[in-house]
Amino acid sequence: MKNFYYTFILAGCMLIACDKENNNVDQPVLPPEPDPAPEVPSIETYPRIKIELNETEQQIVNTTNSFAFSLYKQLQNAPREKKENILLSPFSLNIALAMLANGTQGDALKEITDATGLKGFSINELNSYYQKMTEGLKKADGGVVFSSVNSMWSNKNIKLKEDYVTANKAVYNAECFEVDFANPSTVNDINKWCADNTNGKIDKVLESTSVNDLLYLINALYFSAKWTNEFQKESTREGEFTQKDGSVATANFMPQKGERPYFRNNLFASTKLEYGNGAFYMQLILPNENYTTEQVIDQLKEPGYWQECNKFSTYIVDLALPRFKVTGKENLITALEALGIKRIFTNKADFSLITDYDVVVTKVEQHTYLTVNEEGSEAAAITYDSLGPTDLEPATPPSADFIANRPFLFMICESSTNTILFMGEANSI
Known about the structure:
It holds the Pfam family Serpin. This is Serpin B. By secondary structure, the chain is α+β, with helices and mostly antiparallel strands. It folds into two domains: 8-226 and 326-371, 2-Layer Sandwich (Antithrombin, Chain I, domain 2); 233-323 and 398-426, Alpha-1-antitrypsin, domain 1, CATH 2.30.39. The protein is 24% helix and 29% strand.
């Protein structure tokens, strides 16, 4: 039996498998020309459509969010320049792992579900959840552009199991292309697909492919939204940002003062900025003086801690947020192995639901992009009531300053479920 290797790239999410033997294959079936990336509509009154989850599905949200913080901690621990920014899309990664799980059995599947906290959930429950979430995220706000698109690129000489292909088509709407990985044009086709589905923000995921490649699974995630209350460009002023390595850089700070959610404990302060009709928000977390983002994540990854810290009060917040841009490329194998997902990277994994060939995952990557400015945010990933008397004067909310002039954490989330779509930290500007 031939041996193959998977490369699982999360830039959406890419999964590759490689054959140890060379094969002659036909010319690729090229993907159709996609529609142009949609423009972000101007802010209007769009109905907010909540994502209604049952108890099981909300448990999946909570466990996958906890997994996100644990995985993020591993990225913080990875060797990197001290002031390097970090950006991760947990949602894209989780879709990638779910698509892989559809073709995984035995101990390898157990490792995936144990590490992600999904031990008690069936594959059908996971598939149903991600199908509902993806559709719900698209409809939550008509003024926000959100897309999660999947594709499968397979070697024409390799027979994939029909049930596996059918499941990914039905649940994840995966486009399927049979290609010649020995043909240099295949790389261009894959990179073009990634660029087309991230509005051109991630346009080069692969340098090359090999005749031994079996399969790429790709998830492309794209998000673009305007703030509910945009910052005034004429108010933006230069200021100093103390970077992770202690050096001081000049940044463009966007000021805004008004009522917004605010929380503070002995470790950090946090506030939220809503997009559009409020279906999505960015949560900012600023470590208190003499604390670090690493210390914050150490606590956030503890079960239940993030939920406790999301008990916001209304404050008049004097906010100063720097304009910033973060791009990233993360090889996630080491981080996943540290959390207990190991067998998929060895020949001990059972991928017989995908193909009869012996395969192993050889790469898990995620490519990410985020910009934050006065108008709103654009992000992409390829993975690979209080009741009271009405006759009293309303109390004035307390005040707080939130000056993000040093390293801070950020998350883009959906409001009704608090699902984390993107998370990262700005260590340099």
